[in-house]
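Progress narrative, work stream C.
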Amino acid sequence: MKNHYLLTIQCMVLSLIMLLCMSCVSPYAMTGTDTTANISDVPLPEHLYGFLMSMPEGSNSAMSPKGVKWLAAMMYAGAGGQTAAELKTAFRFDNEPGQVARQLNEESSEGIKIANGMWADRQLSLKPGFQAIMENDFEAHFFVGDFVNELEIVQTDINEWVKRQTDGSIPTLFDDLQSDTKLVLVNTIHFKSEWQSAFDPAQTALRTFTRLDGSETALPMMRQSLSSAYGEKDDVICLELLYAQENLSMLFILPTNPEDWHVLEKTMSEEKINEWRKAMTIEEVDCIIPKIELTASFDLREVFKNLGAWSPFSAQKADFTKMSDSELFVSQAIQNIRIEVDEAGTTASAATAAAFIPKSMPLKKPFHADRPFWFVIRDTETGTIFFIGRFVGSP
């Protein structure tokens, strides 16, 4: 039986950008204003702890597991040898790259918009097989430009494309594209929907929110009474709110005991979330949830490494020979997120990038999210997780 929930989600779940450069650059991390495993060889998305551990401890944050998987698939399309083997194992790619791309598209949900793009320097010779997969299977928008003499034009084109795909949610992806960049691959995921049952703005008020360290702050919090999926299991309380789309929802996960936060987070997995979801029943709920507005930008390299994919980031071991004759390795892998939750619904966007350089009544159940909680935007039929995040009340 399909669950229908409420929220406006604008999920540009990710801009997977692969910058293939022609000189060595020191890797660096990007950290955001607000900012999604230590995974013991457990492939994504089975285990989400690596994503959660990548988030700053004291900040509201989110990540897109699906976005990371799209990035890995695009890297996989150009990888060979050990690099291809690591990506295949870490992300459970059971087929060849073209089939993986088609599979990912089939896993997409109604209401989720996915777009891919590829920008190549006219001096870069792409291998025909890789280009064909990108254009035919990933259905990538293809742009050829002069990265040496007209880099600003290329950068503007990328930013404008991303802005269009995300309805303006991420207006700028690159501020300073490196002059030695030779190839950029981009994936975006965008979703926008209203809550099935909107919150009344008149019920929104400042209420006390207790942070992880026990300190208190006043936050604008929405409130409504409704019939919704609710459950208590394994020391968590769960509430699922439906979007206008029949197959999408936002699942809120609240620790019963705030002191169990770290223990529960270490066991967070897609399987566990689905178990919690199955234990839920329709109840009358008094729902109090804070309005959310957060942005995040951070380094993804540790996520890949924790999943067992090390060689893409090694100048000695990376193998992207199916992409180009130029010997390349990943110098940078990032993801940018923007999520807003208000009375009408939710807006969520993500951009993921990788830069390559050369070698060298009844009683109402209370669900009062007045302390730190996790949230998941998921497909209620397949269990696919598009976003996972935490809200801890930081400014």
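Work stream C, second folded protein:
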Amino acid sequence: MFGDFAPVWPFLSRFGGPADPTAPVGPTLVFETYPVLAIIALGWTLLDSRSAGRLPKYNPSRKETFSLSDWQHVCSKACAEFRNRCLSHLAHWLEAAAANSAPRKSDQDRLDALLCLLVAINVAEGYSCLMIGDTQSGYIVVPHNEQLKAELEARCVQTGRPPGQWLHIFQSTNCIAGTEVKKPMKPYHEMTVAERTIARIAKNREGERARRLHTGRWTLSEIVSRLDAGKQRATYGAVAGLVGGLARGLMNGRPKTPKCSWVVASSGPQRGWPTGYTLHQIHPDCFRQTRAGSGNVINDSAQLERWLEGHTGQSAGYY
């Protein structure tokens, strides 16, 4: 793992050696990142008495400190990032991971791998990033965060290091800007793996931007009101696809009322039923539909959006 014969050296050689983020680069970059510092840089810390918040305790091998809600928090944040880029297969894995009530260390390793990938995507998309360290003694790269940079500058001063030599803000010169790739695109078969990834993200983001022209206006309250008015059930996943975030926990913080009972589970023993509701909390018509085995449930976000556009009535008044 360490020393002159460690496997990392032939790996780096195969991909052109470690990149210098402050210099022009080729189509492939190899650099190190750190999931914990990435979480800080992305603003995913949790509120507590400290002004900067606290780090999520999401390592399941540390049973004395592990928090399932912290695990779900990191999975949810990462899921939203990948879903916003239309990388749905990764978002689906993260959604399933958030629903895992007993994650293992191997699950955390996969989650950390996706956090590292997210840092790489931020570089590829041309966002400002922070290089901490130097090319001689080693460095890591995370998204730029001004509060984090200020704290690291203070640490440099405390340890006698000139901040200007140890902290650098940079943007990749081979990146995606909005939905356009700055350099002319090659034929797909001539692209490197990195270039294909950049092209795919650009295409996905263009499609996402077009979709958001239609779906960005919907709020959870509006959707719930229209489902209630139209006496129409829709799954947590279909609603989450329009408002963003995970299906799991979509209705957290909302009262279990008849009005909200039209948002239901898509699978499992509670399929078609609102999760965690008692009989008196379910709208009578919703209860009758479900009890009768009615298949009138919207499972798809696009189908739900079309239904919403055709139903503009107000809520029936259940709260």
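Confidence is low (pLDDT under 50) at residues 176-184, 314-319. No further action is required on this item.
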